[in-house]
Amino acid sequence: MPQPLTKEEVNSKTDPSVSKQWDESTPKNEQFQELYKIVDGMKSSLLTTIRPDVGPVSRSMAVAKRVGPDFLYLANIHSKKFEDLKQNKTVQITFQDSSTQNWISISGTATTTSNDDPRIKQIYSKGVNAWFGDLGDGVHTGMPEDPRMALIEVKAHYISYWKSTSTSIGFLKEVTQASLTGSVADTGVNRQLFDKDIQQARDDGL
Question: Which end of the chain has less neighbouring CB within 10 Å, N or C?
Fold first, then answer.
């Protein structure tokens, strides 16, 4: 149900669309499980790097594997993102599901490895070669052994996400009612997981 805007929220310069949906009561392990359920249902993310003299640069990339709260990507070592990461290892990963409005934002640190990392063969999947091409020399094949094939590992240190608690029709009804009554729409829960929570999740095998 839409919630009324209060004078206290205005005087304290609070954004009610955020504050009214913060969820600090759900246990952290449950928050992680629901995070994983959302993110595992999405095929692609935006991976954002910081480019000198430009700023944030984003590109769509498929997640090769999620390992708890961390993410692995396969990428061409000749791409400019590797140059970005040599200068600044800070990255952001974002996901959004337009059908549910669920979204996830992950801030982290990226490390890169060359083709000798054994995890490349473990997470390689059919179709990856379509983004590399085959030179026909038996080396640059787009397969796991291709020297261009490299790994980007992102270790999360802050995660925020929003989870819808209404259906698509319910979402529209909630927004419409809030607009007509001067209330604030309440359509989901907003959660944040800090570095200590994320490290605990790794330790617990979540």
Answer: N
Quickly list H helices, 7-99: 7-11, 16-19, 28-39, 80-87
Taking the C-alpha atoms of residue 37 and residue 42, their distance in angstroms, rounded to an integer, is 9
Let me know: does 156 contact 70? Beta carbons within 8 Å: yes
> What's phi and psi for 97, nearest 5 deg?
-110, 110
DSSP state of 22: B
Residue 128 region, left (φ>0) first, then alpha (ψ -120 to 50), else beta? alpha
Per-residue pLDDT band for 184 (boundaries 50, 70, 90) equals low
Query: What number of other Cβ atoms are within 10 A of residue 156's Cβ?
Result: 21
Crossing angle between the packed helical segments 28-39 and 195-203, to the nearest 10 degrees: 90
Q: What is the pTM of this model?
A: 0.88
Q: pLDDT digit string (tens) for 15-31?
A: 766 776 788 899 999 99
Q: Are 63 and 146 in contact (CB under 8 A)?
A: no
87 close to 112: Cβ distance less than 8 angstroms: no
Q: Span 45-58, mean pLDDT? A: 97
CA 173/CA 1 separation, integer angstroms: 10
Q: Which H or E element spans position 200?
A: helix 195-203
Q: Which helix (H) or strand (E) holds 201?
A: helix 195-203
Question: pLDDT tens for residues 78-115?
Answer: 999 999 999 999 999 999 998 889 999 999 999 999 99
